[in-house]
Amino acid sequence: MKYLLIICSVLLLATGACKKEVMPDAPAFALKATAITFKAGVEGAFTFEGNPGIISFYSGEAGHVYKGDGINKSVAVKGNSEARLEKFTYTYAEKGTYKAYFIAQNTNIYGSREVVRQIDVTVTD
């Protein structure tokens, strides 16, 4: 009986140690355009394809530059629990040319994978 307990304990430890960590897949995410033009002060729409878990947006305006110097903030576009999106609207306040970025992520308890998509934005009067 003692040997049976030892064998069962060893088998439980051996099978528990073989647990495989499954990383999430890289998100399928694509913008439908490489450049877009908006009017200042008027809401414009970015369209995209795919269904990542999380989408963040950096407009390219001061304080919202992707990997820029200083403290920059993204705009949350979609969270894991939200329904699939195909469009995101945003209003630029001032005319100019901006490099906007969308960061799409799939995340689980073992890690995160992301893709970065850039789009050139021209804002006119």
TrEMBL record:
**Segments forming domain DUF5017:** 17-75
| Annotated keywords | Signal
Signal peptide start and end residues: 1-19
Key word Signal present: yes
Q: Which InterPro entries match?
A: DUF5017
Keyword S-adenosyl-L-methionine on entry: no
What protein am I looking at?
Answer: DUF5017 domain-containing protein
- Cite the source lineage: Bacteria, Pseudomonadati, Bacteroidota, Chitinophagia, Chitinophagales
